[in-house]
């Protein structure tokens, strides 16, 4: 395995069992097997056990909490030969629900279902992603992304009719016009732009105070990774970029992106930001970035752990990008 595949949400080599998704009898057999387990979500939050080390909960398929699910479960894959299904119980409403932080940038709230014991809680994946091992993180990211897609794609984009779940949750079929719809993944470039000993960092409006990260943006139709890197950096920071190469990728289920980490060489250090796109952009030297990562910088926080920006910057500092 390449070092680049060790980014959060990648590298666990989950068997996604694509060969059985279109065979209902085999899927049903897998669902009824004694070693099959359920991965449970509530409003996009996976069920985890906070006992250290924290882990993704795998419930038996006859657990009473699964009765809260309104839709058929999604077949996520197989681990150690046993099937894993994702259940969504978002229809359940906690008695003490405080929705003031739900959907926030970093939701700190946790929800406990009365049918679950111990330290089992629903927690925002962005907050707990670094607590999980590679397999747990991949299962959680996959389940969150596919359930989020179903939530927003219940109607046919061709004719507007309600669609039905098929292929064990990996397709929606329109019974009216027969169109098939598959889960979408939005490609995004995130760029480690360097000039000599410095890296370009940006800040978006609304981010927590002091937070800076690498520039990023969606790839447009008909555009290559390299072209997207050059366009986005120029649009946001006014910096021209020359050579570009690919480094690593990361699934990012917030809600459904695939981040392509790229390295680019700036042709100059002149910055002219677009205030609609970003709030600030600065060049940060390697020595200064080391202070940021050490928590000693007076005004800048490091990129969030678990995000590919943190992974790229950390490996840039250690000279282990390749």
UniProtKB/TrEMBL annotation:
UniProt cross-references to InterPro entries, sorted A to Z: NAD-cap_RNA_hydrolase_NudC, NADH_PPase-like_N, NudC-like_C, Nudix_hydrolase, NUDIX_hydrolase-like_dom_sf, NUDIX_hydrolase_CS, NUDIX_hydrolase_dom, Znr_NADH_PPase
Keywords assigned: Hydrolase, Magnesium, Metal-binding, NAD
GO MF term set: hydrolase activity
SUPFAM superfamilies referenced in this protein's UniProt entry, alphabetically: Nudix
Catalytic activity: a 5'-end NAD(+)-phospho-ribonucleoside in mRNA + H2O = a 5'-end phospho-adenosine-phospho-ribonucleoside in mRNA + beta-nicotinamide D-ribonucleotide + 2 H(+)
Family (UniProt): Belongs to the Nudix hydrolase family. NudC subfamily.
Protein's recorded name: NAD(+) diphosphatase
Organism: Sulfitobacter sediminis
């Amino acid at each position: 395995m390449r070092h680049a595949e060790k980014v959060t949400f990648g590298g666990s080599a989950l068997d996604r069992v694509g060969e059985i998704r279109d065979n209902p009898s085999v899927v049903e057999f897998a669902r009824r097997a004694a070693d099959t387990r359920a991965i449970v979500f509530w409003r996009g939050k996976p069920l985890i056990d906070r006992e250290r080390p924290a882990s993704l909960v795998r419930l038996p398929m006859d657990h009473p909490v699964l009765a809260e699910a309104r839709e058929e479960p999604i077949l996520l894959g197989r681990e150690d030969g046993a099937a894993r299904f994702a259940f969504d119980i978002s229809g359940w409403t906690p008695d003490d629900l405080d929705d003031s932080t739900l959907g926030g940038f970093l939701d700190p709230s946790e929800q406990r279902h009365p049918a679950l014991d111990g330290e089992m809680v629903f927690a925002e994946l962005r907050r707990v992603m670094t607590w999980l091992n590679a397999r747990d993180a991949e299962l959680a990211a996959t389940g969150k992304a596919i359930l989020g897609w179903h939530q927003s794609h219940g109607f046919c984009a061709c004719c507007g009719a309600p669609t039905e779940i098929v292929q064990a949750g990996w397709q929606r079929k329109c019974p009216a016009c027969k169109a098939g719809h598959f889960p979408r993944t939005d490609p995004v470039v995130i760029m480690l732009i360097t000039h000599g000993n410095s890296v370009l960092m940006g800040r978006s409006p609304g981010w927590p105070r002091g937070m800076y990260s690498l520039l990023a943006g969606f790839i447009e139709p008909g555009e290559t990774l390299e072209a997207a890197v050059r366009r986005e950096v120029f649009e946001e920071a006014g910096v021209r970029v020359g050579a570009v190469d690919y480094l690593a990728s990361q699934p990012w289920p917030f809600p459904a992106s695939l981040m392509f980490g790229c390295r680019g060489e700036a042709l100059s250090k002149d910055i002219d930001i677009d205030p609609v796109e970003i709030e600030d952009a600065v060049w940060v030297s390697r020595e200064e970035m080391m202070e940021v990562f050490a928590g000693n910088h007076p005004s800048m926080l490091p990129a969030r752990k678990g995000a590919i920006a943190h992974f790229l910057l950390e490996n840039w500092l250690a000279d282990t990008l390749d």
